[in-house]
Amino acid sequence: MSKQQPNEKRCVRSLKPAGAAENKPTEAVVKKTIKAEVKDFRIDAKNLFLTYPQCDIYKVIALKQVKGALFNRGVKYILVCKEDHHENDERKLPKYWGISSRRKKYHGHYEKVDSSVNVMKYVKKDGDWIEEGTAPVEK
Asked: What does the alpha-carbon distance between residue 50 and residue 80 come to, in Å, rounded to a whole number?
């Protein structure tokens, strides 16, 4: 692996497409900005349901990672479970937010929750779950 030269970063920023105006950002800078914005995305939902297919992380570890990432943002309840998939003997981990292990990162599927009670019944159906916080109550 080669060391990055001190001027290398500056050179990448100074590359401009042919005919580009001097005061416009380059394509590389725009892409970098977009990547930075992805980290701070907005979800417009009061309750969120996340699933992580084929996730082999223990429930306690998943709960700890999600809690660390979201409790400072006003999340009051997290429910994590392991769900058996008998057809291919794999396990699925539905839970709230993104997680990773030393070997792999897991990206979830995010859905807005219309009925917290129905989602909690679904997640708790196999009996292999843990939770933390105060469960939402529907009116």
From this structure: 10
Q: What pLDDT digit, counting tens, does each position of 109-118 carry?
A: 677 888 888 8
φ/ψ (deg, to 5) at 32: -65, -40
- Would residue 58 show up in a list of annotated catalytic residues for this protein? no
Q: Which member of 58, 77, 110, 122 is catalytic?
A: 122
| Closest among 29, 81, 24, 88 to 57, alpha carbons compared | 81
* Joined tokens for residue 88: 């291919």
Query: Range of 123's domain?
Result: 48-133
The answer to whether position 2 is within a domain reads no
Tell whether pTM > 0.85.
Answer: no
